[in-house]
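FYI - complex with FE2/S2 (inorganic) cluster, inputs then prediction.
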Amino acid sequence: MTARSGSNGGARDVTVRVWRGEDRASGGFVQYDVPADPGMVVLDVMFRVQALRAPDLAVRWNCKAGKCGSCSAEINGRPKLMCMTRVSSLPEGEPITIAPMATFPVIKDLVTDVSYNYEKAKTIPAFRPAPLEPDGTRRMYQEEVDRVQEFRKCIECFMCQNVCHVIRDHEENKEAFSGPRFFVRLAELEMHPLDTHDRIELTRAKHGLGFCNITKCCTEVCPESIHITDNAIIPLKERVVTEFYDPLAWAKRRLFGQRPRQLGEKEPAAPSDR
Amino acid sequence: MSANYTFDVVVIGAGGAGIRAAIEAHLQGARTALVCKSLFGKAHTVMAEGGIAAALRNVWKEDGWDVHFRDTMRGGKLLSNWRMAQLHAQEAPDRVLELEEWGAMFDRTADGLILQRDFGGHRYARLAHVGDRTGLEMIRTLQQKAVALGIEVLMECTIQRLLVDDGRVAGCVGYWRQTGETVTLRAKAVVLATGGLGKAWRITSNSWEYTGDGMAMALEAGADLIDMEFVQFHPTGMVWPPSVRGILVTEGVRGDGGTLRNSTGERFMFRYIPEFFRAETADTEAEADAWYEDKKNRRTPDLLPRDEVARAIHAEVRAGRGSPHGGVFLDIASRRPAEYIKRRLPSMYHQFKELADIDITKDAMEVGPTCHYAMGGIRVDADTAATTLEGLYAAGEVAAGLHGANRLGGNSLSDLLVFGRRAGLYAAEYAKGRPKQAAVDRAAVEAASRRLAEPLERKTGEDPYAIHADLQEVMHTLVGIIRTQADLDEALIRIAALRERQTRVAAWGNRRYNPGWNLSLDLEAMLTVSEAVARSAAMRTESRGGHTRDDFPKPDPEWAKVNVVTRKRDGRLELAKEPLSEMPPELRDLVGEQAKPHAESTDMEATVPAGKPV
Ligand SMILES: Cc1cc2nc3c(=O)[nH]c(=O)nc-3n(C[C@H](O)[C@H](O)[C@H](O)COP(=O)(O)OP(=O)(O)OC[C@H]3O[C@@H](n4cnc5c(N)ncnc54)[C@H](O)[C@@H]3O)c2cc1C
Ligand code: SF4
Ligand code: SF4
Ligand code: FES
């Protein structure tokens, strides 16, 4: 540890090329050199740039510990959390390039307009629990909750959304496609042992699961190592197939206490749990 | 360029307290807005690691609200508002179970109930948790509930001033961070849930948002603050490398078996057991280690309340027994199997591996105190969360009272839920009883927007980043864990000088998403709360909880009877000592009851090992 921090430390400078601008057309990269510290992460470098060179540099961050998902950016072309990317993990002697996420409109510099994600979140029908146990408790077992807890680790960094080619290169698909983050959310609700709501048809028809051709790019960038494709998307796709072609088998598969959706029953148009 | 909106209730702050308040106000039928400086779901609450304290009695049947109440009062060194501590202990279990109704998934006991973990100062394993990411689970659950209810959320919107009409709150003024435009919100009632003030210190676990805005706004509008001298330094922050200094290491590490050692390898906490906790604390390593498995033993001193542990670490480092980078060692690697550590503390494992090249399943961590939490804040009524300004309510870290002189770990998340709900409830009720919106004071709105424009209009002036760094240095070195009159006097002189510089602060660029400009505006609140902390600390000539005076090293029974109150009159802070309310005798008995070192275990004992070390 000491040897490593030594090699990254001292009075050496670090050089970054940061994308700056208020719209994609007129913005561009600006180079800054600032003093480096041992163990620095890219977000620290941005703070230095703000304090010493460009006080109005726009950066989003909160926790600086990989917990809030605010500081996503494209570092040397790869989506990463700025607060969890050590300068020493990047090639030495080359400037580090830092750009805003490409899939979302730029507000300024590294800050993008991620409202697409907040709008999609509103279209997912909420958790609707089964009745309480006869003794008034709720019982779930660790084995059952493990797989759902994997999905609930999501910090909403939206990097999976950012890399997904369905929307990255195709603005027009945004309307009909909710993206991997929300497949994770849908899978979480589908696999919640107490939930009684069936969102499978909705997943197909409204959230555009069919657009996904399992390239796994989303899984590769997830900072929480959620197996987005294997554990969320593929099981959802299987359920869509089962329900679509064999609704009875589907209904039987649902856990006890849960209300199988009746054939032809409509999903509510808007989320509601009241 | 100013937008106007009108609501019944405006909740400022979207952490656990604010979201819970907004949900309740909405359920009461109030037209409610939820405002936050960051994106929705990113508030401090998301960072909470260890858990939510609530006497659910899933692991220990002997637990109950009375024991939780007692632990909270004793942890707060008897300065907590007893009524808040009572309501908190009584209502926390319902609030946690309610989260489960809304989709939260806590870790489970062997028989399928919510698992609870040990934490400092709690007599029984009491913290509902999800590994070490409990705050994420909590905020996501509340966020998803608020979305499902269709509550209006105004994100990246920074509120700067409260509007007052005829002695009652009338709304607030701020700006959209994305555009810099001014925004005015009219409201019949306002709930402040803006969190704490830790960004005024150099080594801190807190984010850029913790600039004391809510406390400063409340003061400015005429409300009282109390207990500002009590700032919690969490004993275990990361110390190395420099860029991560201050990032939190959850108390769950010690709750799950980790122990503190100095450079000689000694488990030094055994030398720091205070008289107050002696009867309930193990004095041999064997008993301390046996306690994890069997609560017939007394608790390990590694889990004394935070103020005790932070002071002990500070003393060890000062005595030259620190770790290479000025902390002490926190060792779980030699005490628990690697698999167990990774399962119970996944984000700590990840954090050390990524940021410090340390594998915590193999090596000890280096840790030291970090500024963490404000016990002080806005004075509220225990039952209704009403402040001393009519129509203004406050909940969460911005409010004071529950934690007294020192907060127990896990008692914040439960505080957010219990008093967030109450604030929303009573704010909505108040709004219902107020048929008309109050008049908006045009002059005040004008003044607020003029103030916003000033730093950008100055062509030259003081650099906001430099003022901030200098303030952090002052607070860290002079108003830290150990305080003296001379240091506090010096701090006040320096704060005054910084305040003078702040009136000349200049920002660069335009209003669009401009952190330099935003910081230039945040400085005023930070300086105000820093002054309130330093002056309150100078006034309290004793040591108690999070406030330690080198020149008055002992607690003074007279000081156990009063709060230090801060208010702003004629543009200046005024301080006063005011008596605490009298605790009813039956509650006093609960607190005074001698610690029962040999608690009986029960039939529930069988479920303990589920979450326990093997
Ligand atoms: C790393 C860490 C770990 C912790 N772990 C635990 C734990 O395990 N258990 C526990 O009980 N406690 C823990 N705490 C403490 C606890 O997390 C906080 O005290 C609590 O989350 C505060 O919640 P809150 O709702 O009061 O405020 P926050 O969650 O901080 O939310 C404040 C909100 O106010 C908004 N805001 C602030 N100023 C303005 C303004 N001027 N205008 C508009 N909006 C504004 C912010 O944007 C934010 O939405 C931890 C704290 C930290 C830092
Ligand atoms: S696997 Fe599917 S959702 Fe993920 S990036 Fe590829 S197409 Fe998008
Ligand atoms: S699933 Fe992973 S990549 Fe996608 S938003 Fe969540 S944490 Fe980020
Ligand atoms: S700042 Fe929170 S994830 Fe980077």
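The CA atoms of residues 102 and 232 of chain A lie 24 Å apart. Strands of chain A lie at 13-20, 28-35, 72-75, 78-81, 96-99, 106-108, 111-112.
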